[in-house]
Amino acid sequence: MASTKPTILLAMDTSTEGCSVALSGSDRVHANFILSPREHTQRILPMVDAVLKDANISLNEVSALVYGRGPGSFTGVRIGIGIAQGLAFGADLPMIGVSTLQAMAQQAYVQQGATRVLAAIDARMGEVYWGEYQLNEQQLMTLIGEEQVLPPHAVLELYADKFDLPMTPVGTGWQAYAELSSAFNLTETVVVSFPHSEFMLPAALDQFLNGQTVMADQATPVYLRDKVTWKKLPGRE
């Protein structure tokens, strides 16, 4: 007989100034989001406890632990994945990483009906974390091309023949670099600035149902800029 156990996913993200937790699979999605640029380590675990308590679910009942894998703040991504790994180790849970750019694109679809999204997070150092997403038949935002870290002028060169296509912008990169917003035919103002764990859940459920999970010791972040950092060190490529 097939198992009737519900799929319960616990998601968390600390990759940007936002700090968020969400839980799906019970009666509804339970979610909490706060802006807390320098207090992620103090905030995230109490938020996890609060969401589990609100849903009346224990950590051992969770099917998988979802984490914002980046891109985003180097420190924030490390905090998020480290805490998620600790919880997953303790409860023997598999893990699922979801892109922070994809999460923002998914939120734009759910809240604004967007079908094509340009995601840009301010990466500092005169660059943005960049990704283009399009809605698929499963109502999931899917990546077009690859996620990259680019200076604004490189984005403009890459999209020189696409400025007139209707796009929805998400992320802090649009406010940080006005030359981006002035170049594109944007269909909306930027409403989604930070990734929310709640909108990582659809992609995570798709991965879970397709067996795309890893154990805690195999969970990896996506910095995008890590190769640049290594190249600065002698002998590194």
Automatic annotation (TrEMBL):
Iron keyword on record: no
Q: Which Pfam families match?
A: TsaD (PF00814)
| Gcp-like domain segment(s) | 37-197
Q: What InterPro entries does this protein map onto? A: ATPase_NBD, Gcp-like_dom, T6A_TsaB
Could you give a GO molecular-function term held by this entry? tRNA N(6)-L-threonylcarbamoyladenine synthase activity
Provide this UniProt record's keywords sorted from A to Z. Answer: Acyltransferase, Transferase
- Name the domain of life this protein comes from: Bacteria
Q: Does the keyword Acyltransferase apply?
A: yes
PANTHER family of this UniProt entry?
Answer: TRNA N6-ADENOSINE THREONYLCARBAMOYLTRANSFERASE, TRNA THREONYLCARBAMOYLADENOSINE BIOSYNTHESIS PROTEIN TSAB
Family, according to the entry, reads as follows:
Belongs to the KAE1 / TsaD family. TsaB subfamily.
Listed name of the protein: tRNA threonylcarbamoyladenosine biosynthesis protein TsaB
